[in-house]
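Morning!

This is the sequence you dropped in the shared folder:
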Amino acid sequence: MYTTGLVLAAGASRRLGQPKQLLAYQEITILGTTLNVAKGCGFDQIIVTLGGASQEIRDTIDLSGFEVVENRDYTTGCSSSISAALGAVDPRSDGIVLMLGDQPDVTPAIVTSFLEGVEGSRLGVCLYENGRGHPFWFSRELFGELETLHGDKAVWKVLESGRYDVTEVHQVGPVPLDVDTWDDYEQLLAQRGARLPS
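The structure's back. Tokens below.
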């Protein structure tokens, strides 16, 4: 199966007040950690979408090995990043694995087991001990629908629409934390026994 990893990292970080992609984590940054995970997943292609703080991210994080897509409509929600990225997906790709750039504790092991579980499926989601979460899988036959989505939670509406069979791949542990607020960031650091940078 030829797979494209798509890392969504175009958010404006409005609730946090500074680019969350560049917050310190694991001796680098939140986005840097997520991108390192993506590199370790064996994807045939990796795309990252940028929007908010795009130039700062380019100046700070090594994006070599990634196809970078600029989303000029990033303020309208993450669906616009998906739509912008679809045009860059390799024609050979069977589908995309959707990852969040602010969710650095998704591991290559999670993604590997997920890919094994969703092979042959049109739509897939991770099922953690406390509910569904990313990564998501969308096969190529759903790209047309993805292009029409709007807003931040639209992919969830597709998952929950009942129009498609959804393959759930069980994962150990709770849904990995994604960072939207300072409280989220403090919780993420606390899980690693770390403190806020001075």
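Headline: The CA atoms of residues 79 and 153 lie 8 Å apart.

More detail when I'm at my desk.
O.
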